[in-house]
Amino acid sequence: MSTLIGVFGWKASQAQPEMVEQFVVSCMPLYAGAGVTVKKTVVEATAPWLSLARAVSPDSPVEYRAASHSPTNARALRMLAFLLALFFYFVRLTQSVSRYRLCRYRKLHEPIRIAFRARPKPPWVRREVIRLKALMREAGTCRAIEKTFNRRFARKKRMTVGRTFVNELIRKHRYQVELEQRRIKNHKPRPVPKNLVWGLDLTGKVDLSQTTHSVLAILEHASRAALWLEALQNKSSWTLILRLFEAIQRYGKPRTIRTDNESIFTSKVFRLALFLLGIRHHRIDLHCPWQNGRVERFFGTLKGKLDQLLVESLPALNAALGEFRFFYNHVRPHQNLGGETPAEAWAGINPYTTKVKGEYWFEAWDGLLKGYYLRR
Question: In terms of Cα–Cα distance, which of 222, 144, 147, 133 is closest to 184?
């Protein structure tokens, strides 16, 4: 008669029939008095964690008999099954903990990669980067703009930018950069009182005999009027002081004279003359001609025409400069003066409301200078 021996917590994939049979044989002393006959053990893997051992054939050569059946042996059998199940549970738990610790150890030695998304920059940062690019133009590389921005706002507003941000912003907003460049170029400077600042500078012109003549220009900042424009016989401090005295007698004394750092303007004689006249001498920084931008812009307009004109001598050059000075002061409207000429701005005349007494067509320098002269 077939008799059910027991159910053990044994993994079916790891259990073999011979192992189960040996196990039952070794545990036979526990079955004393139970009256159980074991013929042959068969492992059925009907569940992944259960193995069923049965006595199936009474004619099997392997035979074990127990004396009798008692409740004590049944309790011992159940206790043994429970202990085996508990043992294999702890074994599997230990393996799981070991694998977890190994994975954790490997992660500790891998480089830490922190992926985060930076917050978008405020709108004023974008506007300032575009403005810096418009101001710096060719010199405004991404590195230069980055350093300039960070030096200005890293401490003051706790805001910095990187080269990648600057590069992408400029690439996406090229049209805005061009608009900003145009706005800066056409920006109207704030008005200043008349005779507050005079700008002095020198340039040169070569005649047909390959002689270079120094050309002196004195420009009044408020009206942009060319107060003096003459080719000098010699480039000396005394000659410059005499021309300055004549201009002061005609148009009044300025409070400040702005020059560059050329030797004729930094000489002791010239500085002493300005001190005696009570005029403040303002020299621009080295290699910064834009700080005396009004007279430099005047020379740009002059040389654009003068380079196309051939002059024979110093008197011919002075005659041509006189014609240009009249054209610049009385004929040519100035953009930053709202369409007024420098002479009208100097006299405080509104060209749109003041009656015109006469209109004259002016033309000089073989058609290089032309326009209407309106006498008021």
Answer: 133
Question: Pseudo-torsion of CA 83, 87, 88, 91, nearest 10°?
Answer: 170
DSSP character at residue 61: S
Going by C-alpha positions, the residue among 217, 226, 222 that lies closest to residue 196 is 222
DSSP string, 307-358: TT----SHHHHHHHHHHHHHIIIIISPPGGGTT--HHHHHHT--TTTSPPSE
Q: Return the pLDDT at 65.
A: 43
| Cβ contacts of 20 within 8 Å, gap of 6 or more | 8, 10, 41, 43, 51, 53
Q: Does any domain span residue 131?
A: yes
- Mark whether 347 and 249 lie in a shared domain: yes
Rounded distance between C-alpha atoms, residue 321 and residue 306, angstroms: 9
Residue 337 lies in a domain: yes
- Is 279 a domain residue? yes
The residue type found at 212 is: T
| Of 4-18, 220-234, 280-294, 331-345, minimum mean pLDDT range | 4-18
Residue 133: closest CA among 174, 183, 79 = 174
Where residue 165 falls (left for φ over 0; alpha for ψ -120 to 50; beta otherwise) is alpha
Same domain, yes or no, for 91 and 130?
A: no
Q: Are residue 213 and residue 163 in the same domain, yes or no?
A: no
Whole-structure pTM value: 0.59
Number of independent structural domains in the chain: 3
**Rounded to a whole number, what is the largest CA-CA distance in the chain?**
149
Residue at 191 is within a domain:
no
In 3D space, the residue among 326, 323, 264, 328 whose CA is nearest the CA of residue 298 turns out to be 328
User: Residue 362 sits in which domain range?
Assistant: 197-375
Q: For residues 168 and 25, state if they share a domain.
A: no
Write out pLDDT tens, residues 362-373. Answer: 999 999 999 999
Q: Please work out, in degrees rounded to the nearest 5, the angle formed at the alpha carbon of residue 182 by the alpha carbons of 178 and 187.
A: 145
Best CA proximity match to 336, nearest among 256, 222, 227:
222
